[in-house]
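Sample A.
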Amino acid sequence: MDRLQQILDYFRPKSSKKCVLYNQRNTRVLLTYSVTITLILFSYILVYVYLFPSKPMAIWCAITGFFAMTPPFVYKYTGNYRNSANVLLSNAVFIICVAASYTGGFESPTLFWLACIPLFAGILNNQRSSYRWGALGIIIAISFGVFERYMGELPSVINGIEVVQMQFLVVVGLTTLTMLCTSVYRTAIDDAMSEINIQKVQKNNLLRVVCHDIANPLMVIQNSTRKALKSQDSKELDGYWKQVERASANMNQILNQVRSLQAIEDGKVELQTEPMTLEGSLSESKFIFEERLSQKGIEIIYSNDHGDPKHFYAEPVSFANHVLNNIISNCIKFSENNTAIHVIEKDLGDFIQITIKDQGIGIPKEILADIFSPVKQTSREGLLGEKGTGFGMPLAKDYVEKYGGTIEIESYTEEDESTESGSSFHIYLKKAG
């Protein structure tokens, strides 16, 4: 597979200006047909040397065989795929005409090869190209018939049983090429469907970010607005509007992150990580979930084993909104009233371990096994009937891995032998500095 990729990369068009979008399918198809046609032509050299002795035909097969290998190089140095494909098709039509002129003209079995040309053209280029080359094949066949009608039969290097042998070779060749065409066509379709599915997953990921993570600051805005409408105290009003402003800024950060995520998924840019501490993100989480924490009497308690905050590599906006908030939201959803969520930071040398531990009901084993899957159903209602989407954990894992880290979950329910139920989310991120 690596060697195939090296070959495909070698024939990649040199000029990005002449070939705006490089598609490996183009190179693969050109190489497949070029190599196949070359092998067929070189095998015909043996036929015309040993089976049907004809030195001129052997020479023509050798010449066109070498020319059959030029299309991938034409594509590499010009970046024009259509012209490269037309070079290949022209070469094939030329040798068919030459072979037919040496083996009986209109009655030559070689003319049946013309039936493959529109098929090649359709796969190599498009439907319109198939029509054009098909029409050309019909014109060539008619021309041989008209020539024989008015100018007499063309000489043939094959006679009698040799005609039957040639017909057999043509049938074998046509069958082989038909199988090849079908294989290449199906591979192209499968590749296209795979690309469509990848794009679909990428779009779904963007939708998940928008639908899932904007809900948190939006809830803050709704709650603060509702309280502001009921309040008559100017100081309280000022505080509520500041909360709205802060939550709005958070939504704006998420939307900007979604725009950059689209570019990342398209391969245009890479996610840029930077040294950061847990303090700022944790403060933002406490603000976002202030209402829910207060409603259930839950406290977030931070601790570390090293005194001063340690820096780790991540992207601040996505870490706060897509990783930390998703985990803390889950912890709140499945924690009993008047409990605590512990956020513990440990220095492991090359990595910083961040553990978010709740005292909730835990995650059943059947859900835990698929909790990071973007396609499996893992959502369930919280203790107060909170709805879930199942998007949070796959999204968190995706971003942690983009940072070059890992995430693990330990969870125990009342049915387990553990002394207490609850979940622990362990995040390992590269230490900075």
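Sample B, a different protein:
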Amino acid sequence: MKSAVETLNPTRVRLTVEVPFEELKDSLDAAYKKINQQVTVKGFRKGKVPARVIDQRFGRGAVLEEAVNDALPKFYTDAVNEAELSVLGQPEVDITELKDGETLNFTAEVDIRPAIEIPDFSGIEVEVDAVEVTDEDVDKAVEELRERFASTSPVERAAEDGDVVTIDLEAKVDGEVLEDGVASDVSYTIGSGELLEGIDDAVKGLEAGGEATFTSELKGGSAAGKEAEVTVKVSQVAARELPELDDEFAQLASEFDTIEELRADSRKRLENMKQYDQATQAQERVLEKLLELVEVPVPEKLLEDEVNTRKHNLEHHQLGQMGLDLAKYLEIQGKSEEEFETETREAAVKGIKTQFVLDELVKQEKLNVNQEELTEHLMRRAASSGMSPTSSPRPSSRAARFRSWSARSPAARPWPSWSRRPRSRTPTARSSTSTTKRTRPSPPRPRPRRPPPRRRPRAEPRQR
């Protein structure tokens, strides 16, 4: 086999490959054997039809086509390896000549990873935010911990801000109850802003058994974006009670004996998180400076694939979980489709360039990841998503969550998809390629003190 490489542009090449016909022998034998197993010829047992009979009955062309399709991947791979190319994606193959008994010639155009020269980056300087933990930060962290240990108790009075109410919901559009517009035993904290707009005003002042109707725009489900008449019925009102911030709370919520020790530990954890954020900020800003110094051509086909993948991830994963479609999302963001396309393309270009530069740095600096670093990374990713490193993720589709709705206890049931407000954070079209952004670890929760193990009383010996 002979091959030659023609550079079409910095990110695309054309391979020209010439294969002597004798190198197709193994593929031809395999083609005859495969066709033999698929056809039936009178007078011959299955799988025992001679090659000449197959040529007469089905044509030599069918055998050659099968043999070439089988052999092309191997010859293409050999040509790529011989030229030491770093290819991206699938090639466009064109068979230019096929002479039975003589030769097979073909060309293959494919995108390649561009050659990049990394300049000296030791002189790059950037500014980052200082690490500072204030008393207010510590107070907020302790208060969040306190919120997690809040208890509720039913009360016989009208619902107020901060109360937890158990409610039934029914949504109607044009006077008709929606197929997915009924939900029972939904637990909601008044003032949290996590359900439909207008629900707080509707339930405040209602006692158990009270009912109210209000109008709101549905946030998801079969009638997303439409105005609906929503009826809410309160079945229970419960007041939230927060524990006192004292030594007893510290012993309940953590491994510490005093509230001062708990606050000191919270400060230390916050400092660690801010130091991590500072390191992440430094990494991102240094990388931005480096990208300004490096010329990185981007393969057009790879760019188109990346843009499409980012749009797919946004529309079918992030927005789907929020009960939004792309049009509604753009309306909320105040962007046109053209602006969205431009931003997505720019983000894709930056992502590809970043990956190319980082890959070249890894190669140039001969970097690798040991098992300890990999384990630490997985632990951080698991902590940031609230999962155990050994657990499997839950199904995230709305259909899966809705099917499991009725199997859960009333207090743990999720809200119907049409009632959830979009989260405050702005979703972005995420890349399918590996990302350079470091995962921020979530603050570890203080470990509750475990009671000492009980000792079983020693059994008295029986008297004989």
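Observation for Sample B: The chain has four domains: 2-112, 121-150+251-295, 151-241, 298-407+423-449.
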